[in-house]
Amino acid sequence: MSSLAVSEDKESKYKKIGGRALTSKIIHDEVPATCHPLGSKNKLVFATGLLTGSGASSADRYSIGAKSPLTGGIKESNAGGISGLALGKLGVRALVFENIRDDFKIVHLSTSGVKFDDAEPILGKDLSEAATWLREKYGKHVAVWLIGVAGEQKMNLSAIAGQDKDGHPTRYNGRGGLGAVAGSKGIKAIVLDTSGVGKNRPEDRDEFKAALKEYHNWLMEAPATSKVFPELGTASLVESTNSLGALPTRNFSIGTMEDYKNISGETLRKTLLERGGASTPTHACMPGCIIRCSNVFGDEEGNYVTGPMEYENIGLLGSNLDISDLDEIAELNRLCNEYGIDTIETGGALGVLMAQNVISFGDAEGAIAALKEIKEGKPLGRIIGSGAELVGKIYGEPHVPTAKGQTMPAYDPRAIKGLGVTYATSPQGADHTAGQTIRAQLDHHSPEGQVEASRGAQTANTIWDNLGMCMFSAGAVQGRFDRIGDLVTAYIGEKVTGEDIINSAKETLKIEHAFNKKAGFTKADDKLADYFYEEENKASNTVFDVSQEELETVGVDRDDL
Amino acid sequence: MSSLAVSEDKESKYKKIGGRALTSKIIHDEVPATCHPLGSKNKLVFATGLLTGSGASSADRYSIGAKSPLTGGIKESNAGGISGLALGKLGVRALVFENIRDDFKIVHLSTSGVKFDDAEPILGKDLSEAATWLREKYGKHVAVWLIGVAGEQKMNLSAIAGQDKDGHPTRYNGRGGLGAVAGSKGIKAIVLDTSGVGKNRPEDRDEFKAALKEYHNWLMEAPATSKVFPELGTASLVESTNSLGALPTRNFSIGTMEDYKNISGETLRKTLLERGGASTPTHACMPGCIIRCSNVFGDEEGNYVTGPMEYENIGLLGSNLDISDLDEIAELNRLCNEYGIDTIETGGALGVLMAQNVISFGDAEGAIAALKEIKEGKPLGRIIGSGAELVGKIYGEPHVPTAKGQTMPAYDPRAIKGLGVTYATSPQGADHTAGQTIRAQLDHHSPEGQVEASRGAQTANTIWDNLGMCMFSAGAVQGRFDRIGDLVTAYIGEKVTGEDIINSAKETLKIEHAFNKKAGFTKADDKLADYFYEEENKASNTVFDVSQEELETVGVDRDDL
């Protein structure tokens, strides 16, 4: 029987931490590091960021944490949308699920407390259908989290989906197989009913208002947040990574794609504008977000197909599979959303299958057919569902773009070496949101300075995860943490300085590494697959050549652990 | 391009070591511990034991070593039959294969040297057919090693098969997926042609003869080697493990099987004697072996079906799958032999699939059909081929009877706790031949004394592996190492004392742990799956309760490493 703990104790050790700091602290303190991730001793923690629900733009994100069945280490996965916001509105800072159960329940949270309903009617359904059913049953105003058929089957690539502001269950806590952990605990869905809950009020309204205004101004002034992302979304990266030789193509064998223009942010925008109807090239996943990097992809008749079509989805489900047709990529993206699976891990798994010629590169039809086998848990579906690392082991394929068992996002580590450092050394496994260096001012092809860049980015990304703030605020906020501290202080009524914010992020990384160390990780895990060191990416003419000694100063065996 | 190194340098650092000591030394010294096991940096080493080919009974065994794709650690797998003997006759102490290649070759060794022939005609064939083809092409006098369809496909449970004295390719280096390493190096078969090679002569014939006589007398006096094994084979263990509650049943969920009498050594012997024809309840895998624990299983018409039907095969492919019909078990055994796969790992993988209801417990037909999917590499075949640990990960099943990624042989570690210690702490992963404690004089249900028993057994088993001696000699030879030292000294012409033999085994274990440590193993790997600690084996009324602190004094993090 899974149980629910609602922590509201402001005097507790958790009072000044939120988001990832909170999930990782609970996992570190309460989960035995060597336990089976799908067994009774693992815990699944949902936590709001420090600013979630405050009204600050792009800061309604939340964290889900657990021991990951994909990496075997600690995991935090972070998303936007409205579900975390609803949790915050309910005054819940962390939901902690313990133990396991065999049947599936819908967990209903409201001001009346918690109840568990039978999930039978939505088992085996596509996520869009299940979400519609939930909103019909519980009211259109509720927010939900839910897992799909993959999570029910405890597949490694299964995710937890939240809702965007239009009700689509397409905001993903994608990484690390957390949907499988939810599945093991019998959690099919969580319904958050905020009826009768008033607006969150900052503890110090005047100070909050002042700091908020400043913060919003920064967002509106920064080029990325005010112009590039609202126009082109994250797909704007296709052009830049392709020119760096970092666009993963054909199972990360090379970093450019001949037809990259077909899948670029510009083409995507043009297509969506032409199509109209449900399509829109800019869309806010969280109410009031200034950045609006998201989009909605519709077909030629104007019908809704899927959303969002992000850079990572296009890179992993597109170029990585040698698929350059946006409609084909959208169909793969749609299936991922319907089954509740991580697009990155799915693209990684399909890429390895293509390297083994189980499906041909470029064969979108084959990829779509294979993906559909996930729904009924057929053997090929199970294989894909286990993630790229295991697909490699199942087929004896050494070219597997993973680190700590998790598929790399859409940046070849030979061409953006700072991300290679992040992949190799982050406690989270390969994950761009754990230490994104693409905007660092250095030569991405050179090994010089990458360790410093990744180290800084890993701290910065943890800061956003703790605050509940979108990483796209980085350009606007970086270096202005004292004022963000003021914003937090005014909101929660506890003094939080800029230094506190930075130190909390560093402490979070430290306990994550400590957990992983207890779980059995060593410096041998702080590396990339052999082929990134040995086989040149012909687009960038580089191999990954940041030295192991340098990597080990960042990873699990670093001196301060 | 794989290459062949023939080491005959008697002055080398390898001069007083053989078998596992030699393979592990070469792997430890020459293979980067973190390399991909199927990549170019792994090596595959075949080495004869110190006494292989000397004429000593039960001592023609040999070792194959590599970094294992199944465990990720160092691996040595040991077998009898005639192939190691032939390598010894050719004067080769170790064959070392480096690098990888995409096509398959037959490696032909004779007094004329080495040649590489095209393996195309035997690719995709059953092992019996391939072995017949090889003996037709190269002569009936040759000995062979070969891999099957599983090794060609680089599956984790693929083995390397040698020949028994009747030419059947049924002597298995089964554990650790070494067939996949051979496959990655393009080695389909190795043909050993000893034409023109004289009998091996000991350096000191008189002393050798005297020591040999004594050794053979010990074998003929000891009850296990002189009576139990020749009569009932290893299947004699069914009765004793069942009475201990240690016979793995229904995916290691309980340690007794209702119908255990149907699969006991007594029933097997009676069946084979009644059937006659090809059947025989006792059979020597190596020429001149006094123990003759092997057997040949024929059908009711007297036709050859498979061999040998050993205890591990009966336990893993029988009781573990709730199959109690010897003919059904024999058919599963036959398929394993034809595809070149490890019976233990196969039974483990099928057991986990049955726990997940992909196949029903007891459904031999379903298991046979599933196994056949290995041949063409269909998805379910690939899943089984990846081994039990990965099947568990693919299906999200926490009840997986593995340690360090390798399936446990047929002894529930809750009921024979010394073997539990071996499973948890051996550098080889779960393996009874890495530290067999079943004959230790203690209460197998108690945690007391198990660490000492396992530690002693791990050293003893390494001694047999180094000498090329069958572990079934243990009862006869244990404690008489000085005289075995005389036997070795007289054979190789280098002074080897009993103490040297023991120290070499300890040194071997040490470098194996050291390799594993570099490969990333920690004390977190020196444990069994959670459920062995948490869920009682109702047959023995025990859980595994040897303390982690004690385990860590034996495993990879022990003090002397």
Automatic annotation (TrEMBL), chains A, B:
One protein family per Pfam: AFOR_N
Repeat listed as a keyword: no
Assigned keywords, A-Z: 4Fe-4S, Iron, Iron-sulfur, Metal-binding, Oxidoreductase
Coiled-coil annotated residue ranges, if any: none
Residue ranges annotated for the Aldehyde ferredoxin oxidoreductase N-terminal domain, each copy included: 1-196
Entry-linked InterPro entries: Ald_Fedxn_OxRdtase_dom2 (IPR013984), Ald_Fedxn_OxRdtase_dom3 (IPR013985), Ald_Fedxn_OxRdtase_N (IPR013983), Ald_Fedxn_OxRdtase_N_sf (IPR036503), OxRdtase_Ald_Fedxn_C (IPR001203), Tungsten_al_ferr_oxy-like_C (IPR036021), W-dependent_AOR (IPR051919)
Superkingdom, natural source: Bacteria
Requisite cofactors: tungstopterin; [4Fe-4S] cluster
MF (Gene Ontology): 4 iron, 4 sulfur cluster binding; electron transfer activity; metal ion binding; oxidoreductase activity, acting on the aldehyde or oxo group of donors, iron-sulfur protein as acceptor
Protein family according to the UniProt entry: Belongs to the AOR/FOR family.
Protein name listed in UniProt: Aldehyde ferredoxin oxidoreductase N-terminal domain-containing protein
Organism: Anaerobacillus arseniciselenatis
Organism placement in taxonomy: Bacteria, Bacillati, Bacillota, Bacilli, Bacillales
